[in-house]
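re: ur question from yesterday

yeah so i grabbed the chain u mentioned. its 286 aa long if i counted rite. heres the sequnce exactly as i have it in my notes:
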Amino acid sequence: MGGRASGPPPLSGTIGRIWHALGALFVLLVFVPPLLLLISGSLTEPGLPPSPTPQLIPDPVSTVGYRQALEVGGVLRAALNSLLVAAVAVPLSVLVAALAGFALARLAPRGTALVVAASLVALMVPATALLVPRFAIFRALGLTDTLVPLIAPALLGTSPLYVLVYYLAFRALPRDLYDACLVEDMTPMGIWWRVALPMVRPVTAAITALTFVLTWSNFLDPLIYVYDRDLFTLPLALRSLSVLDPTNFPVFLAGAVLATGPAVLVFGFAQRRFFDHDDQTGRNRP
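ran it thru and got these structure tokens back, copy pasting raw so excuse formatting
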């Protein structure tokens, strides 16, 4: 008595699971075949004439391309440089965007409208229009040919889009929740860290994954600011491998597999966070 009666799952939850399954099937059909061909090509023995048709299972199977990509192509050092940049820039970008989005959600309506309008205007400015002034600033500061210009945009949240996404997420939280926190005499930083941020974990997972992929695959900024080969990031190392002879193309494909793996893992982790949040929301739903 008094317990909640067990019964079939609600129809909305069943429909949501069907859409999740259809979305996962679509992703598999679109992205898995190219990845399989990429892995298959990377396992082809270098030095052989290119096959006229793609082969799912190369004959013979060889891992020489991976060894040459790591030793000759400098992929290992470049991957470490990219990992260093991502390890600093991604958490910093998410932290700044979350703080700015929370502050924007707590502003007065008039101030919020002005900041949102300014953020939308900033989003419409082409990134290439900022290359020359940014290069002049970093050169005047003596920061060219270092990894600092690749990390510095994280101090501004990398993109106004991330701030706006967090703003919408924090704004969607019930206002009574914020009022209850104020009654408990919590500071704004306490409300952000202990209450608001844990409730928007899917947003944090999505922005983390997107920021990581954009940072990991950033080619234009390293091309402009980095000249020392020891400081090359992974996209620059892959560019040097792309000019190899066609018979050595498996070396380039091996480097591409090594560059794609971390991004796939991060997106898989973010997708799992989404499913975990949906399942928890469904269990807590009355």
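noticed a couple things. Residues 249-284 form the longest helix (36 residues). also The chain has one domain: 38-284.
anyway ttyl
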